[in-house]
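Justification of computing resources. Each target in the renewal requires a structure prediction run like the one illustrated here; the chain below, 225 residues long, is used simply to show the kind of job we budget for.
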Amino acid sequence: MSRYSLGESGRASHDLVRVVVGADASATEPVIAATDAVALQLLVVEIRPATHADRDVIWKIFHEVIAAGDTYPLDRDTSRDEALAYWFQRGAHVCIAELDGLKPSSSQGGERVVGSYTTLHPNQSGGGGHVANAAFIVSTAARGQGIGRAMGEHCMKEARRLGFRAMQFNFVVSTNELAVKLWQDLGMKIVATLPVAFRHLKKGYVDVYVMFRSLLPANYANSHE
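Resulting C-alpha cells:
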C-alpha cells in the first residue's frame, strides 16, 4: 500500500509510514502528543481498500455529500442501494481514508472513516480505456485537513501502478473552488468548460469543468506508443 506524510503545507513526502495531516512532515512515524490539545491537531490517516464492513459509513458520507446539492450531479434522493451500486460499480477500486493511531477530534464525532474514493475504472471503453476516472467524498467534519489531498495523491499513484496513462475528471463543479485548486495542485488542468451545466442548490446554474492530466513521465507525455 502506498503511504504519504502530509504536513502543514499540505505537500506530500513519499514513502513514509503513514499519512500524517497537520503534523511535521519530516517524521516517518507520528509522534504521540503529550497532551490532548496537541493530539487534537494531529491526524494520522491510513488509506486502504474498502471492505464490505465499510459500506455503511461510505453511504453515510455519500448521502451527506449529495444532500448538500453543491458538488455531485446525482439525485439528492438517491437510495443507499443505488449509491453503493454507483460507488462500487464493476471494475472500480474503492479505498477509504481512516483515522489511525490517535484520538480523533471531537468535531469528527468519533468516526474513524472520514473519506473514500472510487477510481481506476476506465473513463471510456475500448480506445479510451487507458484513461482513468475517479470520484471522491470527504465527511463535512473532516474537510480542510488534507484528507482529500492524501486520497488524491494515493489515487494518482494507484492509477499509474495499474497501467493507466492519464486521469480525467468529467464533472468538476466550478463553484467547488477548494476542489478545483486541489486538483490543479495535483497536476490536473481544466481542458473544457461546460457552461451552466450544473444546477447548484443555492447558486443556481453554474459552469462545470472537465479536468485532465497525464500520468506518464514528462518525456513520454506526448508519446503515441
